[in-house]
């Protein structure tokens, strides 16, 4: 009995959750410790619903308010709400939405950084009134193939950057993605900046983080917004050159937007009646680099919150938002076909797979489905490498995956570098 009491007290102190199942096996003679197992496996009864007290007109319930304690058979008193007389931020109660100043009868559908649209790219194309081209622009591909734009010992230095982010910076077998994913992007951007000696225009750029974007537009009878933080933004003093010519832009007027009836285009978007119709880049007036160049999105976490299709939709929407805000700053809020289209690029990665998107805003007439459409170039699912492991994966005495970096794909970094050099050559 003394041994059981000692083991029971020990288990009670250690076991506070269901993670201590193995500790119960250590009890001598295989006996159960009821003080621990009962709290782990005891039946949990559902919470009872509060009793609804009927109110009868003309009758006042007899309560125990005068006695200052609970009395069986008497009703629970109802006291008026106590007011402090001063505002306590720790006990703030927001007013009802109908009482707020920004409340509007017409709802607004918001796309933020964690929105996962069920239709993916197709839904983003409808929201931005765009037509997709499943290939990389020829102007950017020519930059990737030009030997003059290559870095000295490029492949070796890129592989060292990958190893530095995944293997050399940690003693773990597999570092967390929240750590190595942004580190890899910064190392690659630093490597691309080496070409500033050849291309002085690269010095006229600035990298911003945690800026707050807000863009508002109308599609049909609905109000839409793109809002929130969305990654690293590379800004430039000069805008990106136009990729599609006038003939290609006018040719989009004959294309029809793909619909996904009976699913509504507003599905999975945040719906709210408390909002402000504003369009802002997130930067103050007079910012030296007002033109959005490339948006870098990092989908971190071992269990990513967005699938590749939804991630590409997010890239399209935030490129569209940055371009729309810049167009309103240059041409005003009046809907029109832009004389000089605005181009914004985006790169997304989870640390291994890269997604590339180039968006060209051709029109601000977004309310109807007819007329000129915007253009989107998408290049999807390009791996930078296959495996990067600190230890080799051996199965049945056969090395399946060697230690270190394997399966490096140089074409992926060439496209990454081409987007970085776009507009500076």
Write the layout of secondary structure elements.
Blueprint: H1 2-14, H2 34-41, E1 103-111, H3 121-128, E2 130-133, H4 138-145, H5 154-166, H6 177-192, E3 205-209, E4 213-219, E5 222-228, E6 232-236, H7 246-251, E7 270-274, E8 291-298, H8 308-331, E9 337-349, E10 353-363, E11 374-383, E12 387-389, E13 393-395, E14 398-401, E15 404-406, H9 410-421
Parallel strand pairs: 1-5, 2-11, 8-9
Antiparallel strand pairs: 1-7, 3-6, 4-5, 6-8, 9-10, 10-11, 12-15, 13-14
Helix pairs in contact: 3-8, 4-9, 5-6
Features:
425 residues; alpha+beta; seven-stranded mixed beta sheet; four-stranded mixed beta sheet; 15 strands; globular; Large ribosomal subunit protein mL37
Mind explaining what this structure looks like?
A 7-stranded mixed β-sheet has the order 2-11-10-9-8-6-3, with helices on both faces. The protein is built from 9 helices and 15 strands. Mean pLDDT is 87; it is low at 3-8 and 10-29. With 425 residues, it is of the alpha+beta class. The chain has helices at 2-14, 34-41, 121-128, 138-145, 154-166, 177-192, 246-251, 308-331, 410-421, and strands at 103-111, 130-133, 205-209, 213-219, 222-228, 232-236, 270-274, 291-298, 337-349, 353-363, 374-383, 387-389, 393-395, 398-401, 404-406. The protein starts with a helix and ends with a helix. This is Large ribosomal subunit protein mL37. One of its GO terms (cellular component) is mitochondrion.
């Amino acid at each position: 009995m003394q041994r059981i009491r000692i083991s029971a007290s020990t288990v009670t102190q250690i076991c506070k959750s269901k993670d201590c199942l193995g500790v119960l096996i250590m009890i001598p003679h295989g006996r159960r410790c009821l003080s621990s197992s009962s709290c782990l496996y005891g039946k949990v009864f559902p919470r009872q619903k509060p009793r609804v007290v009927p109110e009868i007109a003309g009758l006042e319930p007899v309560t125990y308010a005068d006695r200052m304690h609970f009395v069986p058979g008497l009703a629970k008193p109802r006291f008026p709400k106590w007011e402090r007389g001063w505002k306590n931020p720790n006990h703030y109660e927001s007013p009802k939405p109908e009482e707020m100043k920004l409340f509007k009868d017409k709802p607004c559908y918001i796309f933020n950084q964690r929105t996962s649209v069920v239709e993916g790219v197709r839904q983003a194309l409808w929201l931005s009134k765009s037509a997709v081209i499943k290939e990389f622009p020829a102007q950017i591909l020519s930059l990737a193939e030009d030997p003059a734009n290559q870095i000295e010992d490029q492949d070796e230095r890129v592989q060292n950057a990958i190893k530095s982010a995944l293997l050399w910076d940690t003693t773990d077998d597999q570092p967390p993605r929240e750590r190595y994913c942004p580190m890899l992007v910064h190392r690659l951007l630093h490597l691309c900046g080496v070409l500033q000696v050849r291309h002085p225009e690269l010095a006229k750029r600035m990298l911003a983080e945690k800026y707050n974007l807000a863009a508002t537009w109308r599609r049909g009878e609905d109000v839409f917004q793109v809002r929130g933080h969305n990654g690293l933004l590379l800004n430039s003093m000069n805008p990106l050159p136009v990729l599609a010519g006038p003939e290609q832009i006018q040719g989009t007027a004959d294309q029809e937007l793909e619909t996904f009836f009976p699913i509504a285009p507003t599905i999975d978007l945040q719906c709210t009646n408390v909002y402000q119709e504003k369009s802002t880049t997130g930067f103050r007036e007079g910012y030296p680099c007002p033109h959005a160049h490339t948006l870098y999105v990092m989908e971190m976490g071992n269990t990513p919150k967005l699938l590749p299709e939804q991630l590409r939709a997010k890239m399209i929407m935030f490129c569209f938002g940055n371009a729309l805000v810049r167009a309103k700053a240059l041409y005003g809020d009046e809907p029109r076909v832009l004389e000089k289209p605005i181009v914004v690029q985006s790169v997304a990665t989870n640390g291994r797979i890269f997604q590339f998107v180039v968006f060209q805003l051709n029109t601000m007439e977004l309310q109807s489905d007819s007329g000129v459409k915007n253009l989107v170039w998408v290049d999807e699912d390009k791996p930078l490498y296959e495996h990067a492991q600190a230890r080799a994966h051996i199965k049945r005495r056969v090395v399946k995956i060697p230690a270190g970096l394997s399966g490096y794909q140089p074409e992926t970094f060439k496209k990454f570098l081409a987007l970085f050099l776009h507009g500076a050559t």
